Amino acid sequence: MRIRFESDGGFAYLPGLNRPFVVDTAELPPATATELEALAHTARASASGEPPSGADQRSYRITIDSGGGSRTMTFTDPVSDPAAQALIDRLKELKKP
Asked: Does residue 13 belong to any structural domain of this protein?
């Protein structure tokens, strides 16, 4: 499974620090791969319609390619789905050098 993670907006947004992050679970340790795949399967895009407006709103786009197709989900802070928030948090951890 390949996961592409992008963030946009937020306070003091710096494009150079917000480059897309792509992770292939086949390249991760088995426990991490299993955790990330489970989070990706349970996360659902917010059904709230229009994202909240605000100058400092941070948004996240996650594209999941599982070989049988891909899906893209978009979330805006605050993320209402606990599984989606857990996926975002885990991807942020993995993105850190």
From this structure: no
Cα-flanking dihedrals φ and ψ of residue 15, to 5°? Answer: -55, -35
* For residues 81-89, average pLDDT: 92
Q: Mean pLDDT throughout 24-41?
A: 95
How many domains is the chain built from?
1
8 Å CB contact between 2 and 65 = yes
Domain that holds residue 33: 1-6+20-42+58-97
Using DSSP's 3-state secondary structure scheme, residue 77 falls into: coil
Average pLDDT over residues 15-41: 89
Rounded Cα–Cα distance for residues 16 and 69 (Å): 30
How far is residue 32's CA from residue 45's CA, in Å, rounded to a whole number?
Answer: 22
CA 41 to chain centre: 12
